[in-house]
Amino acid sequence: MNNSNRHEMPTQDPLVRNRNFKEVALGYDEQTAIEEAKRCLNCKTKPCTNGCPVNILIPEFIGYVAEGEFEKAYEVISRSSSLPAVCGRVCPQEKQCEAKCVRGIKGEAVAIGRLERFVADYHNENAKDAVPQIKKNGKKVAVIGSGPSSLTCAGDLAKMGYDVSVLEALHIAGGVLVYGIPEFRLPKAIVAKEIEGLKALGVDVKTNVVVGRSISIDDIFNDYDAVFIGSGAGLPRFMGIEGENLKGVYSANEYLTRINLMKAYQEDSRTPVKKAKNVAVVGGGNVAMDAARSAMRMGAEHVYIIYRRSFDEIPARAEEVEHAKEEMIEFKTLTNPVAIVGDENHNVSGIKCVKMELGEPDESGRRRPVTIKDSEHIIDVDSVIIAIGTSPNPLIKATTAGLDVNDRGGIVADEDGRTSKPGVFAGGDAVTGAATVIKAMGAGKKSAKAIDEYLKSLDK
Length: 460
Hints:
Elements: H1 14-17, H2 30-37, H3 47-50, H4 58-66, H5 70-80, H6 84-90, H7 112-126, E1 140-144, H8 148-159, E2 163-167, H9 176-179, H10 188-200, E3 204-206, H11 217-220, E4 226-229, E5 235-236, E6 249-251, H12 252-260, E7 278-282, H13 286-297, E8 302-307, H14 318-326, E9 330-333, E10 335-342, E11 348-361, E12 367-371, E13 377-379, E14 383-386, E15 390-391, H15 395-398, E16 424-426, H16 429-432, H17 437-458
Helix pairs in contact: 2-4, 2-7, 4-5, 5-7, 6-7, 8-17, 12-13
């Protein structure tokens, strides 16, 4: 093999996998992982580590993989990451650690994400985790939500000796990892295994606790010394166009939750999802790809991604876009919906769109899409999924006095998670709006350190 090229990831055949919810990528075997790890140059400056939001010592763990010391590699990763099997699957490594890889200058970057996944899976399949002996410090912290920022914060605090309770509104822990990301990208058994690892550290996970309804932030302080809010961005956005209230229109958030959390794809599921023949998904991010690929697996004959900018500007991960194309998802770029059309029974019958062209750059630096005159047309569909983004959950901010929020609905917090309310910290999508899993984890890590410093300062 040419050493400038990475080892390919084996996958299910596209025309088989687009009708099942089994994991698409099959993972490296031991020998392939070792050979890929040997491509690492072990750079002294470690630029890849600097590109990782949780600062995993990447050359060190890859060095152990190259030697076949997979458990030692896992030990290195787990010093920095509470969710390695998750990150190896869903992190946008091509924009982070792999983007900094020196190998990528004259070829392909080392497949850091694939190696992380391999190491985590090897550990989960072969190792028996010893119950850690942690000296408790007598302090208690409540963590609201159980997504990536919360789980990371909880794990780090537990390792420091805090009694940590995770308060989750849904009946299953995992947050966006279980309700947002499909099984074919992130098997739920993987998430459950990672959460069991946190429980082994002593983290108490309480489900069906809706903070802001069943208990308030102020009530929590009766039993806990500090609070971390990692409640995510679960409020869907819509376009505000005619027809969004028709039967057969979903937010991507609802659609994916019904499929991922409630298993709507199973024959005996009690959660209905319309079995549509032709589906339009509006948006170009990872969530749009997830919704479109899920719709195909639910039996659709045609699934269209409708995106108002050009194909080159689609913000989803390159791998997810490539997988969607392989699975026969049809991309209609430079196209923008202006209305959803219904029949006499208020069911979706089509989506009215206009063609776009790229004009001058906007404030983000991207060329602004401009409508082409007289370009209206209707695409025949019987279901529409809106995947244009989400906003932070409004419940906690609406029921918590003294907690500042910004004009986008996010909780105002500094880079270490400190909010305007003493003893309350926040991170992840609840602060930034929808972002990546690894960035949320980085925020949870910073907040755990800040909470530790805050509580120790109270004892002085």
